[in-house]
Amino acid sequence: MSETQLRLSAEQHYAHELAALRAEDKGPRPPNWQLSPNAVVTYLIGGKSPSGEGISAKYIGNRRLIEIAVATLATDRALLLYGVPGTAKSWVSEHLAAAISGDSSLIIQGTAGTSEEAVRYGWNYAKLLAEGPSTGALVESPLMWAMQEGKLARIEELTRMPSDVQDTLITILSEKALPVAELRMQVNAQKGFNVIATANNRDKGVNELSSALKRRFNTVVLPPPASLEEELEIVQSRAESLGRALELPNEKPALEEVRRVVTVFRELRNGLTEDGKNRLKSPSGTLSTAEAISVVSHGLSMAGYFGDGSLKADDLAAGLLGAIVKDPVQDRLVWQEYLETVVKERDGWKDIYRASRDLI
Known about the structure:
Elements: H1 10-13, H2 15-24, H3 37-45, E1 47-48, E2 54-55, H4 63-73, E3 78-82, H5 89-101, E4 107-109, H6 116-119, E5 121-123, H7 125-131, E6 138-140, H8 142-149, E7 152-156, H9 163-166, H10 169-175, E8 177-180, E9 185-188, E10 194-199, H11 211-214, E11 217-221, H12 228-245, H13 255-270, H14 289-306, H15 313-324, H16 330-343, H17 350-357
Parallel strand pairs: 3-10, 3-11, 4-7, 7-10
Antiparallel strand pairs: 1-2, 5-6, 8-9
Helix pairs in contact: 3-4, 3-5, 12-13, 12-14, 13-14, 14-15, 15-17, 16-17
């Protein structure tokens, strides 16, 4: 592990927690799992190890959803984490892989350009031309590695892949084998192998899953945070963690400033003020919890490098504008109306009103 590494994987960052749970875990473990299902849930939801060591919460939300996800991975069904953007699908996927397999790096990123070779296998064409088809010329995909080692493979943004590429998973998920026709062989999945995929239905370019592929997955929908306090806790803890990782020269983010960011996002996202009295127009973007974390992190950077280190309205205004105004005409009008009808009239919010108005 390098001290200069920008981002540590889940199994690196939380190695001490995983080690503590593993050392004291007496529950039954499925084959090739590093932890028992109960310990995996404790790692995700937070709590204490049997000896009393604190385990931080990686997912703040409904415990039952995580239990369903973990139980799914202990069967022969693959897991699909579904929801609107910014509901921690990739975050949960990474931590599930870290807790179960001890390795979250076996990942395929779905895009419009993802090819069948990226999912199944490819070829080293120099060796292929020199030797012909051989195991030495074969280039294993992360999915093939996971099958051979009995680990979890992660597929991000499954619905961004072309439909014909998605359907290459059907045989793998059904037969737990990957045929390599050129070598007249197949790679058989070892115990412990499974797939975690993530998908959302809000982005442009989404390709719906075929019925045949849907049947191979158990779908768990991760909802947006149910309450302001729940979302506030998520944004506060993640922004603090990012600030430490990036070594930003700032103080701990003020809870009240984070609360204002979360309130703005929730009100515009829901089209209604928190007190339920005023209906609002919503911008074209999703205004997800992940974007709220980015706004606070950007504010911490502004405060640390161009301020006194204390997060203030001036530090947040640019991040709010960038997150909310995606369409320069429609969204700008929505933001201006919200500033004039809600922010301007709210007690204690005059500073964020002035800072935001100066940027429009």
